[in-house]
TrEMBL record:
Name of the protein in its database record: Uncharacterized protein
Species of the source: Virgibacillus pantothenticus
Length: 127
């Protein structure tokens, strides 16, 4: 499975307990699957599957991760490595496909239709 990191920041929506939560990060495509990597105020990078908004896993923002993400170029290299770990974790794609389908049904039933992902202008966010 090919891994591609989208350098364009995007607005994603994560499934929280009772609502969709708007966040900004980068898309990591792993084959036909789309994930987002979101730095969270809790000191972790949340890696979630985009179509469901469900968390796939978290990475602690420790000294190692901070050293690998202190420049734009290094951040995208690091996100490529995150994509490699996602590829290993997915394993059997038939099982993963079923989990995504069920996850979409569950989140839509609980939270309603997920808002669309959209590109973000970082300059606008900084203002």
């Amino acid at each position: 499975m090919e891994i591609k990191v989208n350098e364009q920041p995007q607005r994603f929506y994560l499934a929280w307990e009772d609502k969709w939560v708007e966040v900004v990060g980068h898309e990591i495509k792993v084959g036909n699957y789309s994930f987002c990597a979101i730095p969270m105020p809790t000191g972790v990078i949340n890696v979630s599957e985009i179509t469901t908004g469900l968390k796939f896993y978290e990475l602690p923002m420790n000294a190692y991760v901070l050293s690998k993400t202190d420049t734009k170029e290094k951040t995208f290299e690091f996100l490529e490595k995150v994509g490699e770990s996602i590829r290993r974790l997915i394993g059997n794609t038939n099982v993963f496909d079923k989990q995504i389908i069920q996850g979409r049904k569950n989140t839509e039933k609980l939270l309603g239709k997920k808002p669309e992902t959209e590109n973000v202008d970082i300059e606008e966010l900084i203002k």
